[in-house]
Amino acid sequence: MRTFELNIFIDRPRDEVYDHVSEPINMIGLQPLLTTIDILKEQKSTSGVTLRPFYTVETFRWAGLPIFRSRVYSVIHLTHPKEELEIHVFRKPGIQIVFRYFFNEDVDGNRTHLTQRVSFEKVSKLLENLVFDQAIKTQRAMLTNLKVRLETK
């Protein structure tokens, strides 16, 4: 299983950063390929963890024209509210990725150290390098967009 980790500091309190990432609607504008989102009903897992499922459509473009659309099912797991959450992503053909977010507050409470650990749970060997490279680019853009969005509020 391949993994990678990204870190970023955001000049906003931890609770504010956590609350923003934990809401599916806020993914619009953060993820570069995301074009539509369909939020499903919030649920609880058997262990009591709040789950926020949603569908997205990612549009891949070439020369500005849409060439491929992919429907993706994702579930946000609020594993440790205000400190940690996971986003489980299921996409065709049989790809499963888990994004773990860790929210650490600076001593003064006005800055958040956000760590994102990405684990590829299930990826075909044929697509592994392509999926891995695309995920790194997408997640760097997402964290940068999150920082800009929250710091310019």
Features:
single chain, 153 residues, alpha+beta, Alpha-D-Glucose-1,6-Bisphosphate, Chain A, domain 4, eight-stranded antiparallel beta sheet
Query: What general form does the structure show?
Result: globular
Following the backbone from N to C, one meets helices and strands in this order, namely EHEEEEEEEH
- At the fourth level of CATH, the homologous superfamily is START domain
What is the CATH class name? Answer: Alpha Beta
Domain count: the total is: 1
Overall pLDDT metric: 90
Q: Between the first and last Cα atoms, what is the distance in angstroms? A: 38 Å
Determine the strand fraction and express it as a percent band.
over 45%
CATH topology, what is it called? Answer: Alpha-D-Glucose-1,6-Bisphosphate, Chain A, domain 4
Number of strands: 8
Count of DSSP H/I helices? 2
Question: Which architecture would the CATH scheme give at its second level?
Answer: 2-Layer Sandwich
The helical percent reads 10-25%
Unreliable residue runs? none
Radius of gyration, in Å, reads 15 Å
Oligomer: single chain
Question: How would a crystallographer describe the biggest sheet?
Answer: 8 strands, antiparallel
Main structural class: alpha+beta
Please describe what this structure looks like.
The chain is α+β, with helices and mostly antiparallel strands and 153 residues long. The chain has a single domain (3-151), classed as Alpha-D-Glucose-1,6-Bisphosphate, Chain A, domain 4 (2-Layer Sandwich). Helix content is 21%, strand content 49%. The radius of gyration is 15 Å and the shape is globular.
